[in-house]
Specification:
14% strand; binds 4'-deoxy-4'-aminopyridoxal-5'-phosphate; alpha/beta; 37% helix; Aspartate Aminotransferase, domain 2; Aspartate Aminotransferase, domain 1; globular; 2 domains
Length: 353
């Protein structure tokens, strides 16, 4: 670091993303991408004519994408804002609804970026520990005088709260924004989008990175009351008006319209998840009841870090977290059936060898 860096940034521990090897050397089960390619409709939409238009700026209003998203979600376009990944929308939301006087409440353990962004923006964190079984007790979020963010399903535990539990939190916090991060909701969670017209303090954030095969395109949607969305647009237009590039706008629109492909691929992931969970349980692993495109699993037979390294040596990348509470666990993205069979085979070799 240079001597010019501000003390805040010098003291900050930046987020460490999961490993992203750029070759095909590994079976990659570490950052919850889809093992399937984008819909053929996406491939067709990102065509040469669109590439030619890259010399022009993209539509800052993202009108065509918003029209498709509004139709899909039963909302109006002014109730939706696209972000460069849900990360950008979450960052914009924290910028809009939190500051030094307005803390952010969130769980420990949850998505690691929440705490990093709080540190970056001088936002005090109010950390609410998970229960012993890793669940979230919604009543602990009642009546907080703070902005709240809940990943539902949570990461890396995969556990989901029913919509009614989030509704309790919304009702008991009428003066605070409740952000529900639904990155994994399409794999068996219950979305809060249907509550948007009832609660003006609800902001739902979804992503195209997991269930729509577009992690590399960087696209997410923030959805909520039009006034909340106007607040987010205030941040976006101050910082990065062209936050969604032309190719991603086209890809996102096509992905939203191909509902058959979306449903077929997420169903395949859920089926493969059930198969993998059973195989792991048969081998004595403990697992949470994941509603996500990953499993959160541990075994008494080997420490989490050692098992992560042994799998990596066999060409399989999974995620291990240094955090003491979950150091025994691995987070394993659901890949194709063949990839999961390779994982089980590798585990058998490691644990029985
Ligand atoms: N929220 C959660 C809970 C996540 O796990 C992730 C990705 N790992 C994100 C948000 C960000 O996803 P993206 O920026 O790719 O949309």
């Amino acid at each position: 670091m240079s001597r010019y860096l501000t003390p805040t940034l010098a003291g900050l521990s930046p987020y460490t993303p999961g490993e992203q090897p750029q070759d095909q050397q590994y079976i990659k089960l570490n950052t919850n991408e889809s093992p399937y390619p984008p819909s053929p409709a996406v491939v067709a939409a990102v065509n040469a004519a669109e590439v030619e238009k890259l010399r022009l700026y993209s539509d800052p209003a993202c009108a065509q994408l918003l029209a498709a998203a509004a139709e899909y979600h039963g909302l109006s376009p002014d109730e939706i804002m696209p972000g460069n990944g849900s990360d950008e929308n979450l960052f914009f939301a924290l910028r809009a609804f939190c500051d030094e006087q307005h803390p952010l409440a969130y769980a420990d353990v949850t998505y690691g970026c929440y705490s990093v962004w709080c540190n970056l923006m001088h936002i005090p964190s109010h950390i609410l520990p998970l229960e012993a079984d890793f669940s979230i007790d919604p009543t602990k979020y009642y009546g907080l005088n703070e902005t709240i963010v809940i990943a539902n399903p949570n990461a890396p535990t995969g556990l989901a709260l029913p919509r009614s539990a989030i509704e309790g939190i919304l009702k008991s916090n009428p003066d605070n924004v409740v952000i529900v991060d639904e990155a994994y909701v399409d794999f068996g969670g219950e979305s809060c989008v249907p509550l948007i017209h009832q609660y003006d303090n609800l902001l739902v954030v979804q992503t195209f990175s997991k269930s729509r095969q577009l992690a590399g395109a960087r696209l997410g949607l923030a959805m909520g009351n039009a006034a909340l969305i106007a607040d987010l647009n205030r941040v976006k237009f101050s910082l990065n008006p062209y936050n969604i590039n032309r190719l991603t706008l086209k890809a996102g629109e096509a992905a939203l319209k191909d509902t058959a492909y979306f449903d077929a691929t997420r169903q395949k992931i859920m089926d493969t998840r059930a198969w993998t969970a059973k195989e792991l349980a048969n081998r004595g692993f403990s697992l949470t009841d994941s509603r996500s495109n990953f499993l959160f699993a541990r075994t008494d037979r080997m420490e989490g870090g050692a098992l992560y390294r042994a799998l990596k040596e066999k060409g399989i990348l999974v995620r291990h977290f240094d955090s003491p509470r979950i150091a025994d666990y691995l987070r394993i993205t659901i890949g194709t059936q063949a990839q999961m069979e390779a994982l089980i085979k590798a585990l058998d070799e490691i644990l029985e060898g």
